[in-house]
Amino acid sequence: MAILSANINNDFSPSTNITRHFDWLSRTVSTFNSQMRIKYKGAEFAEGQNNNDSSLIRITRDTRGNCRLPAKAGITSFTKANCEISCEVDAGMSIESNEIVRINCAQGYGPDSNNQYEAKYICNQGSWFDKEPKCVKLCPPLKKEHLKFECIHGGEPVSCDTYMRQGTLAKFRCEEFYRASYDPISYSDTTRCLVGGVWSERLPTCSLICGLVNQVNKVEATLMYGNKTTYGEYPWHVAIYLYVAKRYEYICGGSLLSEHFVLTAAHCMFDPSNYVKFREDQLKVAVGKGKRDYYFKERYQINSAVLKIFVPETYVGDGTRYAEDIALLQTYEIFKFNHFVLPVCLDRYGSVTFRKNMKGTIIGWGLNEEGTLSDELREVRLPIMPIVECRREFKDFLQFLTSDKYCVIHQNGSGTGRGDSGGGMTFEVAGQHYIHGIVSIKKTDSNIFSAFTNISIYTSWIYNTMRKPVSKNTKECGIIGRTSHPLRKRESNVTEAASNNEVVPYGKYPWHVAVFKYMEKGELLRICGGTLIHEQFILTAAHCVWNHSNDTKVAEKEILVACGKYHNDYHMSETHQQIRNVKKIIVPEAFTGRITNYDNDIALLQTDEPFELNNFVLPACIDRTKPPFTIKPEEKGTYLGWRMTDKEGEKITYLKETQLTTLSIIKCRKKYSHFIKYLTMDKFCVNIENDFGPQRGDSGGSLTFPYKDRYYIRGLSSIKSRDEAEFSVFTNVSTYVDWINAEIEIALVFN
């Protein structure tokens, strides 16, 4: 695609790129006589040569010398070059001589050209200059779990996430802590894109390397109640914490099975005082721990909320003598593996044989020689005893020795005790540790043996449960929270009707956010409302974070946000409140406040740290479907605010809700024509009855609608007329879904 140009010296030979001169060439070529010869791509051709000349592609021409655009597989249409009107042409149509077109290919196809971005084709008196337009099959993107790819085409790196051209070479390898299982016939770590859009090699499956003991310098300090472990030595051990009296307290151990599943004992999940199962939001798990204390931060420690507790349906604790004492916890976080956070192996197919008197490793923070829970993780190696022999040996404990158990014999005063429940017993096979049991129960007045849940009986239940995890997306948004206690309504101010001006029980709407600003004297004043839509992002009105005196954003350091708030006052501490600084304020570039009549009145606040999600702090949903679900005319949505007044005109200091009726922007413009300049196309209106609606200080609050058992945010309180209290204007969130998604993605990637 080049012509040798002027040779100034012998060091290099410049060439002219013909593709950059197609327009001139197309105008010129038709004026040459039929015998004029043109050098192109190192080959000579002449119009009028015999049919064996392959450099000029002849097609059926009409009497005017036009070229018919081919209709072949992969071609969708063509686009005329140097065109301003009606530029797209369908396959099968004709173009005039000297016209240039670019080819448009269907997904999975690309132009038959070395440079797909300069794939131009010239019609020359009924023939195609160089080659006939054609789309060729591309190779599909390379994606496989736990495989990493590097792709090269023409010596240059290309993205492996898009369709690739013939000749692209891809190198692949498994992520760290995974290994490839290859076809035994051939081994390769590269694959090439071949003609026809197929890859030359099958991709391997990457399997997790589980049960690896971290090879650290072991401390050989033999203790009466087990050996002290070195930090990170057993990277699958998990600490489980319960929120008690405003603190997370250690209750049980567990074992990491995958990126987001922890295995533990079922009895750890129940309150021993009333045998009610704990709620997910009461629990936390931590991996990468060496110290028992939740608040002792360690280098590789990762904490996670619990998304779902799974316990066998027939488990009833003491009622069936602790049979089926096994549980799975699905974590909110997806744990990223490293040398200090790795899962234990699970013998899915019973390939490992466990024999009498085999010694396994038990780790935990259970009782030490002083009778208190150990601050540091300890280990002990003890022998196992099959359940049949255990029943014969310990007849006084027979009723608790159910068929899904085996026994572990304590030695030299070392064994399991309170605080060790839920931890795993592992056995090393070929350098990897396999979990065989879970610490379950023991006789309270004896330190001779313990009963363990035999995991081999439950492998099917474990795998079936892990195969159907709870969707994080369905759990994380639009769920009305479980309230800690229904707050009593003020009798003189609140009606029984739930549709207007209702006191909100604490935690009912866990997505509502209070936005505070530091004032001149350093005091914090709540200036607006907001809505949590992501663990690190809050949606509010742009004018809430806008300095109207100089038309710029306020500084991030001036803003604080609070979730889990019930009262208006920042200084009134509440059980589940979480306070965060604002790391970044994001507003649309087009927002200029009053200058453009509050068009684009929407903002995102990125917090410095993510909120810890629980039943009192959860995001609202955003409808990302195209088109969004329909809100019927005059449909009622739920609005929350602190500045709504009660019937007697008294300002409210605690959160209230009311139902507001929507009004389309078209109807709103007709009804309130005097306010029309503020009724931009990104807005809608709501009717307000009895002054139960947004007031100053509640801007940025959300209007949500229930849909399929979840609450979706569709509006942000924006502006209202000072002269009329019967309507208010909201920013239509549906208009900004793409902007919201893009800004969150950019912020998370680059910040």
UniProtKB/TrEMBL annotation:
Residues 194-467, 479-745 form the Peptidase S1 domain. PROSITE patterns: SUSHI, TRYPSIN_DOM, TRYPSIN_HIS, TRYPSIN_SER. Coiled coil: none annotated. Residues 137-208 form the Sushi domain. GO terms for biological process: proteolysis. It holds the Pfam family Trypsin. The keyword rRNA-binding does not apply. The keyword Hydrolase applies. Keywords: Disulfide bond, Hydrolase, Protease, Serine protease, Sushi. One of its GO terms (molecular function) is serine-type endopeptidase activity. Belongs to the peptidase S1 family. CLIP subfamily. PANTHER family: TRYPTASE-RELATED. This is Uncharacterized protein. It comes from Rhynocoris fuscipes. The lineage of its organism: Eukaryota, Metazoa, Ecdysozoa, Arthropoda, Hexapoda.
